């Protein structure tokens, strides 16, 4: 039978191989004479390093053999401590700077033993569609232009990256998916609304709410109301269907303010602070500061909410009342998931039984909803 | 009076000629160039001669693909699920299709079929790949596969370096991260 792939030009074979992890691409060199050198022209660098001794030499030789040909995809995820030699650093930096038409750039490395720095020029690569950087140093960025960027994930970026986050976002007009976590960014400048933004996941950074006006999925991993005590909005999140909040003490007023501004919300996740963090440097709860449930039920609860999930639930009075409120008022609720805080699960079997019984008794009027304990 | 839909004449690799809706055929950049730049395809006598890679069967598949994507107003989800089903064909036809789409410069289809082929290869050993594509093993045993190791430091060197340097800095980093949160 004829060789099926022989009719394809080298360029297409390399393109097919560019979707595969580099070690496998290198392995194709033993297939036949034609394939012997093909792997060197594959425009993709894709290493998932979990064993330093094994992959290190492979990565080195890949970079050397590839020469200065540009990459379309660069994915380097390193899950073990890896020492990068100076010559290797230079090679990676050259590969990055030279790949001006790169579409996917995804770097995660615990290069704590190295001073490896990402050249700032990557922030002006006009073809970039996906940019994911984690645990990495980035050279001081002065100019950003990412017209095609759809996915931006920045986590634990180590200095000296210094740029106003709002300025950075304004330079990504087509952004759809934003994830920022543990960054010491400033966010004071002007911003343009990101009209294409769909998913946002923010951890520990404050940005003007207006940026997220049109999103569908919103996950805030910052403790409310401590980090953002006042929620004053003059608009609704009219597209929002999924919301996840991370809350501390006095959380009920904040949650209800959110619910009143999310008329179409279908899925709500509330994550309570775990105990050991709860007592750390937080304002004291004041007994007289009593809050009562609003007279009108927020529109999303009465007509849209389908799933509700409470994480790190410890069965306090306010938590239980909230769960009951949802169970009784959300007519279209399909699932209520409760995830206990660990100590209830591990040591207090009776307490857990009580909690389950209490919550189940709120369910009696509903036959369409399932109560799940995780 | 109702306007007649314009057609274009195409000649495939087996020399057969067929009439195709121009709107759909124009989806292929190569056909589009022939029509606009050379004024070809307007009659049976000046049919556009398609590249050798395009057999009648492949042309019909490609036109199906173009016909679906040419309709405006389809959602991304619809397009995605159509594409997924479209490439569920045997490997031999998938290779032929890639080659035909490439010769017509139909980039979105090349992209789709290339990804499908990559999924077939992914995780397979060279031996399995040879089987899938009927690749003859023409590398004689005397020819040695190139030595790939460039780094000449020993594993012990590496280990001692890493063990000696690591922990402290990581801890500082963790503390910093906690402060930021």
TrEMBL record, chain A:
<dbReference type="InterPro" id="IPR053781">
    <property type="entry name" value="F-box_AtFBL13-like"/>
</dbReference>
<feature type="domain" description="F-box">
    <location>
        <begin position="2"/>
        <end position="51"/>
    </location>
</feature>
<dbReference type="Pfam" id="PF08387">
    <property type="entry name" value="FBD"/>
</dbReference>
<dbReference type="Pfam" id="PF24758">
    <property type="entry name" value="LRR_At5g56370"/>
</dbReference>
<dbReference type="InterPro" id="IPR032675">
    <property type="entry name" value="LRR_dom_sf"/>
</dbReference>
<dbReference type="Pfam" id="PF00646">
    <property type="entry name" value="F-box"/>
</dbReference>
<protein>
    <recommendedName>
        <fullName>F-box domain-containing protein</fullName>
    </recommendedName>
</protein>
<dbReference type="InterPro" id="IPR055411">
    <property type="entry name" value="LRR_FXL15/At3g58940/PEG3-like"/>
</dbReference>
<dbReference type="InterPro" id="IPR050232">
    <property type="entry name" value="FBL13/AtMIF1-like"/>
</dbReference>
<dbReference type="InterPro" id="IPR001810">
    <property type="entry name" value="F-box_dom"/>
</dbReference>
<dbReference type="InterPro" id="IPR006566">
    <property type="entry name" value="FBD"/>
</dbReference>
<dbReference type="InterPro" id="IPR036047">
    <property type="entry name" value="F-box-like_dom_sf"/>
</dbReference>
Automatic annotation (TrEMBL), chain B:
<dbReference type="InterPro" id="IPR016073">
    <property type="entry name" value="Skp1_comp_POZ"/>
</dbReference>
<comment type="subunit">
    <text>Part of a SCF (SKP1-cullin-F-box) protein ligase complex.</text>
</comment>
<protein>
    <recommendedName>
        <fullName>SKP1-like protein</fullName>
    </recommendedName>
</protein>
<dbReference type="InterPro" id="IPR011333">
    <property type="entry name" value="SKP1/BTB/POZ_sf"/>
</dbReference>
<comment type="function">
    <text>Involved in ubiquitination and subsequent proteasomal degradation of target proteins. Together with CUL1, RBX1 and a F-box protein, it forms a SCF E3 ubiquitin ligase complex. The functional specificity of this complex depends on the type of F-box protein. In the SCF complex, it serves as an adapter that links the F-box protein to CUL1.</text>
</comment>
<feature type="domain" description="SKP1 component dimerisation">
    <location>
        <begin position="107"/>
        <end position="146"/>
    </location>
</feature>
<feature type="domain" description="SKP1 component POZ">
    <location>
        <begin position="8"/>
        <end position="70"/>
    </location>
</feature>
<keyword id="KW-0833">Ubl conjugation pathway</keyword>
<dbReference type="InterPro" id="IPR016897">
    <property type="entry name" value="SKP1"/>
</dbReference>
<comment type="similarity">
    <text>Belongs to the SKP1 family.</text>
</comment>
<dbReference type="Pfam" id="PF01466">
    <property type="entry name" value="Skp1"/>
</dbReference>
<dbReference type="GO" id="GO:0009867">
    <property type="term" value="P:jasmonic acid mediated signaling pathway"/>
</dbReference>
<dbReference type="GO" id="GO:0005634">
    <property type="term" value="C:nucleus"/>
</dbReference>
<dbReference type="InterPro" id="IPR001232">
    <property type="entry name" value="SKP1-like"/>
</dbReference>
<keyword id="KW-0539">Nucleus</keyword>
<dbReference type="InterPro" id="IPR016072">
    <property type="entry name" value="Skp1_comp_dimer"/>
</dbReference>
<dbReference type="GO" id="GO:0006511">
    <property type="term" value="P:ubiquitin-dependent protein catabolic process"/>
</dbReference>
<dbReference type="InterPro" id="IPR036296">
    <property type="entry name" value="SKP1-like_dim_sf"/>
</dbReference>
<dbReference type="Pfam" id="PF03931">
    <property type="entry name" value="Skp1_POZ"/>
</dbReference>
<comment type="pathway">
    <text>Protein modification; protein ubiquitination.</text>
</comment>
């Amino acid at each position: 039978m004829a060789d099926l792939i022989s009719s394809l030009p080298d360029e297409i074979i390399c393109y097919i191989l560019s979707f595969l992890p580099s070690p496998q691409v290198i392995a194709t060199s033993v297939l036949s004479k034609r394939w012997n050198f093909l792997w060197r022209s594959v425009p993709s660098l894709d290493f998932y390093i979990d064993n330093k001794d094994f992959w290190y030499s492979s990565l080195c030789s890949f970079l050397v053999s590839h020469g200065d040909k540009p990459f379309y995809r660069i994915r380097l995820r390193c899950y073990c401590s890896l020492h990068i030699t100076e010559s290797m650093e230079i090679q990676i930096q050259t590969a990055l700077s030279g790949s001006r038409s790169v579409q996917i750039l995804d770097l995660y490395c615990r290069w704590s033993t190295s001073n490896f720095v990402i050249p700032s020029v990557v922030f002006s690569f006009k073809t970039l569609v996906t940019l994911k950087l984690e645990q990495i140093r980035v050279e001081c960025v002065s100019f950003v232009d990412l017209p095609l960027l759809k996915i931006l994930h920045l986590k634990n970026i180590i200095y000296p990256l210094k740029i106003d986050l709002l300025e950075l976002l304004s330079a990504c007009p087509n952004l759809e998916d934003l994830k920022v976590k543990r960054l010491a960014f400033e966010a004071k400048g002007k911003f343009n609304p990101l009209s294409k933004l769909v998913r946002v996941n923010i951890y520990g950074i404050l940005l003007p709410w207006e940026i997220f006006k049109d999103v569908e999925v919103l996950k805030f991993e910052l403790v409310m109301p401590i980090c953002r005590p006042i929620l004053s909005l003059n608009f609704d999140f009219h597209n929002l269907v999924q919301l996840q909040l991370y809350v501390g003490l006095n959380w009920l007023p904040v949650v209800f303010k959110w619910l009143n501004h999310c008329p179409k919300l279908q899925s709500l996740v509330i994550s309570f602070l775990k105990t050991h963090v709860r007592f750390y440097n937080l304002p004291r709860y004041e007994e007289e500061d009593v809050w009562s449930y609003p007279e009108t039920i927020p529109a999303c609860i009465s007509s849209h909410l389908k799933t509700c999930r409470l994480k790190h639930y410890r069965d306090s009075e306010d938590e239980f009342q909230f769960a009951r409120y949802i169970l009784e008022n959300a007519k279209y609720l399909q699932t209520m998931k409760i995830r206990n805080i660990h100590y209830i699960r591990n040591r207090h079997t009776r307490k857990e039984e009580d909690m389950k019984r209490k919550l189940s008794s709120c369910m009696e009027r509903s036959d369409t909803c399932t109560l799940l304990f995780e | 009076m109702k306007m007649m839909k314009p057609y274009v004449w195409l000649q495939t690799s087996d020399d057969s000629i067929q009439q195709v809706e121009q709107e759909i055929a124009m989806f292929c950049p190569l056909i589009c160039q022939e029509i606009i730049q050379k004024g070809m395809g307007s009659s049976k006598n000046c049919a556009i001669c398609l590249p050798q890679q395009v057999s009648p069967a492949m042309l019909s598949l490609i036109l199906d693909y173009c016909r679906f994507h040419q309709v405006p107003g389809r959602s991304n989800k619809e397009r995605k699920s159509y594409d997924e089903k479209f490439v569920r064909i045997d490997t031999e036809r998938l290779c032929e299709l890639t080659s035909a789409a490439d010769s017509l410069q139909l980039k979105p289809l090349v992209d789709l079929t290339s990804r499908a082929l990559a999924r077939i290869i992914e995780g397979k050993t060279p031996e399995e790949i040879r089987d899938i594509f009927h690749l003859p093993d023409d590398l004689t045993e005397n020819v040695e596969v190139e030595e790939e190791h460039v780094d000449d430091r020993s594993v012990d060197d590496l280990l001692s370096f890493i063990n000696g340097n690591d922990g402290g800095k990581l801890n500082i980093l963790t503390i910093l991260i906690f402060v930021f949160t």
